[in-house]
Amino acid sequence: MPGEPRTLALAPGGAMRLRWAAWGVMAAGMVTVSLLLAPGPTGWLGAALAIIMLAIAVIDWHRFIIPDPLNALGLVLGLIAAATAAPEAWTEALAVALLRAAVLAGCFLLLRLGYRRLRGRDGLGLGDVKLAGVAGAWLDWPMLPIAVQIAALSALAGALLAGHARGQALHARTRVPFGLFLAPAIWLVWALQTALPLLAD
Q: How far apart are CA 122 and CA 113, in angstroms?
């Protein structure tokens, strides 16, 4: 009718195509950045990390689950990256990467068990615990808390924004797909970790 406000809405199929196009552009950008930061095997491993972390984020967003095969692949590639970065001392680098993975996964597991004991329900999924192990394999000790803080703050902000959009207040039972935020944070901090020596030169 003349004079009535007009709204522009995407059809469900169009919205889905737009969403997948956005994920594709993001994946291409992350892969490109990985290869630019570290040409050679390290860059290709970083590119693979980008794809895996993005896949984990998408799946956890839609299904609230992190597939074990993706976590396992991310862990294996992280160990390969650690060994590749120190070819003359690859056994030591591999041991340190495994130690970091075990420590961070152990911290997440303790957090999961503590929350369950206090609240009587799970507040952190086992997939998130395993994903923390992936972070430990890829990131140096000083970078681990940075990745966790980025993920936690972005998850809180995302939950607040989503709740506001739905007109719902954030409460203790609000479900948040933490992998959606932790997985990209792992790649982001890996990229920062890789870029720092370049910036220092």
A: 8
**Tens digits of per-residue pLDDT, 60-91?**
999 999 999 999 999 999 999 999 999 999 99
pLDDT band at 3 (very low <50, low <70, confident <90, very high): very low
CA distances in angstroms from 29 to 21, 77, 89, 110, 185, listed in the order given: 12, 20, 32, 35, 15
- Of 76, 121, 126, 70, the C-alpha closest to 101 is 76
In angstroms, the CA 66 to CA 78 distance is 17
Tokens 């303790």 correspond to: 110
| The amino acid at 152 | A
Judge residue 7's burial from the number of C-beta atoms within 10 Å of its C-beta, 0-12 exposed, 13-18 middle, 19 or more buried.
exposed
